[in-house]
Amino acid sequence: MSGQKDPMAMEVETAPIAETSNSSKSSMDITTDPGKNVMASGAVGSITCSLHPLVIMNVSEHWTRERAQEGSVQQVIGALIGKQKGRNIEIMNSFELVFTVIGGDIIIDRDYYNMKEEQFKQVFSDMDFIGWYTTGDTPSATDIKVHKQICEINESPILLKLNPYDKNIEHLPVNLYESVIDLVSGEATMLFVPLNYTLATEEAERIGVDHVARMSSMDSGESSLVAEHLTAQHSAIKMLHSRVRLVLEYMKAVQSGQLPRNHEILREAYSLCHRLPVMDGLRFRQDFYNQCNDVGLMTYLGTLTKGCNDLNQFVNKFNILYDRQGLGRRMRGIFF
Amino acid sequence: MSKPSSSSASEAAACDSQEQIAQKNWEMANNVEIVSSVDEIYRYDKKQQQDILAAKPWEKDPHFFKDIKISALALLKMVMHARSGGTLEVMGLILGKVDGNTMFVMDSFALPVEGTETRVNAQAQAYEYMSSYIEAAKLVGRQENAIGWYHSHPGYGCWLSGIDVGTQMLNQNFQEPFVAIVIDPVRTISAGKVCLGAFRTYPKGYKPPNEEPSEYQTIPLNKIEDFGVHCKQYYSLEVSYFKSALDRRLLDSLWNKYWVNTLSSSSLLTNADYTTCQIFDLSEKLEQSEAAIGRGGFIVGGADPHEKRTEDKLLKATKDSCKTTIEIIHGLMAQMIKDRLFNSVTPH
């Protein structure tokens, strides 16, 4: 079932991806010095990335901590570690890096990195150095310089940028980039290409994230387990509903001529509808009923156990109340 | 959709206006104030911590620390590490600080120790790792010291075993202030709620003044004796979690992508093994309680306390069965919801 959902998640996300490339193009127009532009135009990323929420929380905590201790906003830099399988990169964890600022340039401390690499290899032996992270908005020339230093450690590192000031809740202010060497006015220069990423779906992580996300909004002592569980489902369904409505409104607008037709979006919406019902074979129905029956059976047993317990307690109380000296005890001896 | 970029364009254009400048200044001043009160907790006050360490107010009162606040990051790290161990126990250290009767856990890190329950001390390799990690952390602004250790109990609940109690007592003699955190990744996934406990042991021979009724936990049969022998030697701290302003904002945005995972999770399939183990365990417990009730009739004079114990056995078995039943019903609810949402559409 979860395998079925990933294509749907991708379909929902292709719309924002078209937007980010638009916004990056318009921000390129805004940057005053076109010579400082470090984004490769029109290039598509060559790899797919899967990002764990733990990494995002790591970066956020690093930034918050530095700010709280220094009293002012600091740019933070750190390393990303994870696994790479072919064209798929899974970014699983991260740690901080020490850097010095010499003459306006950021120099990464290689010794510190080597020591940390030794450490993390002991605990996460199957993870490798994948790239680096920093805070800020769109990548700049200083990022290119640091990226070149990182390239000495790993040939093609990934850059993760977290923007702590992005107030738009609609999207995650985290962007991933990889680097390409392009010819710009005759010179081979390094440019950044934005990458698409999905969020990794580890179940324990999801529950942890869910818990810290909702803990302050809940009153402490939510006594009903069912209500908690259903609230989570309800929020998810609400999101699904709002997304579906968005697509529907777009279709209506196209139909009434308010918006221009975008064939790609219409094609995807059509294929989405075509996939429903998701699963409806005889085999599925049988398995599903089996599962329901199993759960029903366990519930029945649970209820029986509860009934036995209640009955046992009742019998004990009855015996205590109506116990007659000698007669009662001898009677029980006979029956058992 | 293209609003963020167009608003930044308009901001750049209208920045000349005095009003805009004044408003931005006010906003920035306001933001800074709001954030600093929430994120004060992330600032490490070395002097204050050293004073507290010198004063050692916990020496006189075994019940000194009452609650523990864990940061969102530390929780996620511990959960992920515990989960990565699978059915093996894993172990790590936690970094943090102390303030009044509360312990604060800011961060955690994993230790390269092979997890088996019989190991009391970390190996020499782990000691070296610990000290070099904490030293390296100080270089990047992580000033906190080690304030405890955590380990996982995959599938058998959050409590301290005999060996854990021994280790923690040792720690509390030499490394105060220190706390023991236990996390169960299997139950976390099965119940859909984080299963974590924070404990401090009483010194040897200390009798706690009043018997606190602790929350009932399902313990598998093979561990119940270990639990029962030692459960009075420690107490649990009240756990709460905190997060920074940026964390809150990121978590809100995360939800925009994560809701898909919530809908698509199938806990019945993920937890199939664990549920089966629970049912086996439950059946053994029921057999035990049945045997105990059967014997009850022959004992004369000692009937009442004995019956109370058999009652307890059956009562506990009932609570366990209720817990398992509730979890699978939740799983089935999720399946039904998915079926309704995605299968009940008739194609034209």
From TrEMBL, chain A:
Region (Disordered): 1-30
Localization annotation: Cytoplasm; Nucleus
GO BP: any one term: protein deneddylation
Keyword set includes Nucleus: yes
MF annotations from Gene Ontology: metallopeptidase activity
Residue ranges of every copy of the MPN domain listed in the record: 49-183
Gene Ontology CC terms, in alphabetical order: COP9 signalosome; cytoplasm
Pfam families associated with the record: JAB (PF01398), MitMem_reg (PF13012)
Keywords recorded for this protein, A-Z: Cytoplasm, Nucleus, Signalosome
Keyword 4Fe-4S: no
Compositionally biased intervals (Polar residues): 19-30
SMART domains (UniProt xref): JAB_MPN
Transmembrane segments: none
Family named by the database record: Belongs to the peptidase M67A family. CSN6 subfamily.
Main function: Component of the COP9 signalosome complex (CSN), a complex involved in various cellular and developmental processes.
Stated name of the protein: COP9 signalosome complex subunit 6
Source organism (scientific name): Exocentrus adspersus
UniProtKB/TrEMBL annotation, chain B:
Subcellular location as annotated: Cytoplasm; Nucleus
Keyword check for Transmembrane: no
Family: Belongs to the peptidase M67A family. CSN5 subfamily.
Record's keyword annotation contains Zinc: yes
CDD domains linked: MPN_RPN11_CSN5 (cd08069)
GO molecular function: metal ion binding; metallopeptidase activity
GO biological process: proteolysis
Keywords, ordered alphabetically: Cytoplasm, Hydrolase, Metal-binding, Metalloprotease, Nucleus, Protease, Signalosome, Zinc
GO cellular component: a single term: cytoplasm
Protein name (record): COP9 signalosome complex subunit 5
Ranges for domain MPN: 68-205
InterPro entries: CSN5_C (IPR040961), JAMM/MPN+_dom (IPR000555), JAMM_MPN+_peptidase_M67A (IPR050242), MPN (IPR037518)
One Pfam short name: JAB
Secretion signal span: none
